Amino acid sequence: MLTHSTILGYPRIGPRRELKRALEAYWDGRLGRAELDQVGADLRAATWRRLAALGLGSLPSNTFSEYDQVLDTAVLLDAVPERYRAAADPYTAMARGADGLPPLRMTKWFDTNYHYLVPEIGADTPLRLAGDKPIREVREARALGYATRPVVVGPVTFLLLSEPSPGGPSPLHRLDDALAAYADLLAALRAEGVEWVQLDEPALATGAGVAEARRAYDRLGALSDRPKLLVASYFGELGDALPALAATGVEAIGVDLVRGGPVDPAALRGKTLVAGVVSGRDVWRTDQEAALHELRRYPDVVVSTSCSLLHVPYDLDAETDLDPALRARLAFADQKVAEVVALADRLARGDRGRAPVSEDVAAATESTSDSRAPYPERAASQAVHLGLPELPVTTIGSFPQTGELRAARAALAAGTLDEPAYERLIEAEIERVIRLQERLGIDVLVHGEPERNDMVQYFAEHLDGFATTRHGWVQSYGSRCTRPPIIHGDVGRPAPITVRWTRYAQSLTDRPVKGMLTGPVTIVAWSFTRRDIPLREVVGQVADAVREEVRDLAAAGTSIIQVDEPALRELLPLRRERQDEYLQWAVAAYRHATSSAGDHTQIHTHLCYSNASEVITAIDGLDADVTTIESARSGGRILRELDGFGRGLGPGVYDIHSPRVPGAEEVGDLLDAVLKVVPVERVWVNPDCGLKTRTYPQVEAALANLVAAARERRP
Ligand code: GLN
Ligand code: ZN
To answer: Do residues 593 and 550 make contact, with C-beta atoms less than 8 angstroms apart?
Structure first.
């Protein structure tokens, strides 16, 4: 057995984001390769020491990554597309791009906010053991006195997450080649004296890959020259994959008992259950009694986390400002490790725990209160009310955030700048942004969001039921981290949040200024949420709060309100059969939040991404009057599918993810493509997303070109 307690993985960015700083310095040429490697080695050593000090039985290794564990796996297996091989540093080139070579595509790791790089696997991509990172980490730990269990992304998940090279077959066709490489890896680890290896197969929780998993682990399980195998699933139930894995020769199966629910002990067919009873996806303490009660059901069990602790912050002890009553309910990574250890001790002592009391959670009562007239009627009254020109030009909300603003916010938090002085700075910035937009000839203005650090954190700081942390960073991708707020109680809006700034901005100009809010799903998706009531109820409470803000903005005379919902897909259940139900209530929550606007008030939504069928479904469901989406990057590909689109549409004609300034002609070409499929009276002209990360010179030049292209096409 795996000495009764383990975790599936641990954060790696560093308790003070040491890896982030080192990586960014390395990319800028301020730090050498050897120094960067040393920062990594120090973080790994600190992790093993910490886990051992906390009393954990079996320590994982290879949970460190310089950028991403899926990219690590691709490099380990030599699955490097030809075009990156000549780069000075192929790993960094795949992660970040180099010499005009774009990086690999990046996408969400299942339903988390972590993003991985998508490997590209064609018919001829090599798949063979080419690296030794897991072996090096085993040696490194051993030198410090620790025997570890290397963690590697498993073959089925690796191939399911990869994309075919253009025109090539599905990467799953390469399963046999991949298995040969994994067999070599297992033999090499065995030769190194490794006792256990963990192969991560979270993709099995989506319902995919069952037959492939059976084939893969039949083959790997039958090898004579290998360490013992733990196949770890997480993020949901295994379903048919559980009996499939149990029928193979692997020694242990990791199951997410938090999200996936209990399993039938008989279905394990004598395998060791690595029981994920401590959640790696939230920041709450575990109900130890209920967990023990569950653990007692299985004859051969190791206490573990539901998934890697990568998705939670390091240590609650760093949060000295939190309300003590809330603190008492929280657990970050180190506290969760301590819970795993405590549970394993109690289990070993024969402690039984007690059955959980089932709480009757009242089904969310839904009052959509759709008080708005149908879209065509509203559109007519809005057109009269707003009196906008054809092809109105607008932006998505934020303007560049200057260092001066960030310094002012830090000074306010530190108490060296008082509230009135801070507000005067914000007002001055709003005025600057309004004047700039007037000068450029933009039709629908924004206040620029200078008062917001982040589109979710800002609202979390102003709503009841949310707490924010100081050091609670969680890796999003590469060196990027977010600090998700914590929803710990019923959500309420004690006072209007944005009305003051929107009203001020509107007082400066005759042109309409858009109110700017974040939607209920996005606020919840980018926070740690409660576990004691259903997700949909939490979203419903936030929707109530947004609804009050929409009502107050409209009452203050705001004629256009944009409610961003870029994370609409992020809470989508992993299993297809549950997705429709989710979309129905998520979209209903958005409608509830926005329908407190009158018919004259135009509702805009912004979705960041553009997947045509989803956009169409979402737009009809969301019932917004105008939708702005990403499209400049995909060369307007989405447009073909939006033929005859029935509402206002603003496909982004300026890719704000790049410092490049598009010329007026280029913008015009994109607009002409839009005008071929969407009637001119419904088309808006805008960038892809907020301008926060760009500089003023870039933004001014690009927006001037947007205005020029729009004006040229007006009657
Ligand atoms: N209104 C936000 C902004 O402009 C939208 C950001 C987003 O879509 N991610 O910054
Ligand atoms: Zn966006």
So the answer is: yes
Q: How far is CA 181 from the centre of its chain?
A: 31
Interface TM-score (ipTM) > 0.95: yes
Q: Which atom of ligand 1 is nearest to the CA of 452?
A: 10
Number of other residues whose CB lies within 10 A of the CB of residue 572 = 18
SS (H, E, C) 566-578: CCCCCCCCCCHHH
Measured CA to CA in angstroms, residue 25 lies from 31, 67, 318, 479, 648 at distances of: 5, 14, 25, 11, 44
DSSP H or E run through 581: helix 579-594
> Within 129-278, where are the H helices?
133-143, 155-161, 175-191, 210-221, 241-246
DSSP-assigned states of every residue in 289-332: HHHHHHHTT-SSEEEEESS-GGGS-S-GGG-TTS-HHHHTTB--
CB 283 within 8 A of CB 331: yes
657 is an active site residue: yes
Residue with tokens 């699933």: 233
Cβ–ligand 1 contact at 516 (below 6 Å): yes
- Residue among 4, 173, 592, 657 flagged as catalytic: 657
pTM: 0.93
Residue type, 350: G
Task: Write the residue with the smallest CA distance to atom 10 of ligand 1.
Answer: 690
Q: How many CA atoms lie within 13 A of 157 on its CB side?
A: 24
Pull the structure tokens for residue 569.
């897909």
Ligand 2 ion: residues within 5 Å (CB): 566, 608, 689
CA distances from 544 to 54, 114, 583, 619 (A): 42, 28, 18, 20
Please list, in sequence order, all residues whose beta carbon lies within 8 angstroms of the beta carbon of residue 603, skipping any fewer than 6 positions away. Answer: 560, 561, 562, 563, 594, 597, 623, 624, 625, 626
CA–CA dist 426, 409 (Å, integer): 10
Walking along the chain (715 residues) 10 residues at a time, the average pLDDT comes out as: 88 98 96 97 98 97 98 98 94 91 92 95 96 98 98 98 94 98 98 98 97 98 97 97 98 97 95 98 96 95 98 97 95 97 94 64 44 88 93 98 92 94 97 98 98 96 97 96 97 98 98 98 97 96 98 97 93 92 94 94 88 68 90 69 81 89 94 91 95 95 98 95
The residues, ordered by sequence, that sit 6+ positions from 190 with a Cβ below 8 Å of its Cβ are 225, 226, 227
Residue 343 near residue 291 (C-beta atoms within 8 A): yes
